[in-house]
Amino acid sequence: MIASSDRIHLSPEAYLEWEAQQSIKYEYLHGEAYAMTGGTLAHNDIAVNLTTLLKNHLRGGRCKVRMADAKVGVTAKGPFFYPDVLVTCNDADRTAKTLVQHPCLIIEVLSPGTEGYDRGEKFRQYRQLDSLQEYVLVDAERMGVEVYRLNAAQKWELTPYFPEANGSAESLMVDFFSVGFQCAIAAIYEDVEFSALLNG
C-alpha cells in the first residue's frame, strides 16, 4: 500500500477512533494520518505469494501471518502502520481484533513512491518494536529481496538476495530466520509480470 500526500492532524486516541469509521485505511505518524492508496498488480501478486507461502509454512503452529488490512501499533500512542505482510507469534496478537503489537517479521513490498520512506523513517519506527527480529523489503520491479536481521549483538544486519549476483531464481533460497522459513526467490515472484509495470 502507498501513503498519499493527504494529511489529517489528530491525537493518537482520536486517530484510532476516527480511522475505524473510514472507508479506506490511514497510517499514523507524528500526529498526522496519511491515506493509503492501492499499489500495482505486481505489488499485490508478491504480497499474495508471500502470504500464501508463509501461511502454508506456519499452519498448525502458534504463529500467524497477516496481510495489508492488519494494523501494527509501534506503541499505544503510535505510530500505526499497515505493512504488506507480517507474522506474529504472540498470543495476545493471535486473538487481537484491531491491532497487532508484537510482530516478529514485517515485510514491505517496495513501490517507487514509498521506497525511501520504507527504507528510512518507517524502518526507524519499526525498530522500536522489541518483538521485531526481521524486516524485509521486496522489490516490485525486479527480483530482489533484502532482509534486515537483528543479530546477537542487537545490531541490524542486511542480507541481500538478488539472482543476478547469487545464481538463478530457482536455486537462490531466501531465508526468514525469525519463523524458520526458506523458499526459492522464484516462488516469491511466481506469476509476477514485470513487463506490465512498463506498459501500465
TrEMBL record:
Gene3D superfamilies membership: tt1808, chain A (3.90.1570.10)
Domain of life of the organism encoding this protein: Bacteria
Entry annotated with the keyword Ribosomal protein: no
Alphabetical keyword list: Endonuclease, Hydrolase, Nuclease
GO function terms (MF aspect): endonuclease activity
A Pfam family hit: Uma2
InterPro entries documented for this protein: Nuclease_put_TT1808, Restrct_endonuc-II-like, Uma2
SUPFAM superfamilies per UniProt: Restriction endonuclease-like
Putative restriction endonuclease domain ranges (all copies): 13-185
UniProt name for this protein: Uma2 family endonuclease
Organism: Leptolyngbya iicbica LK
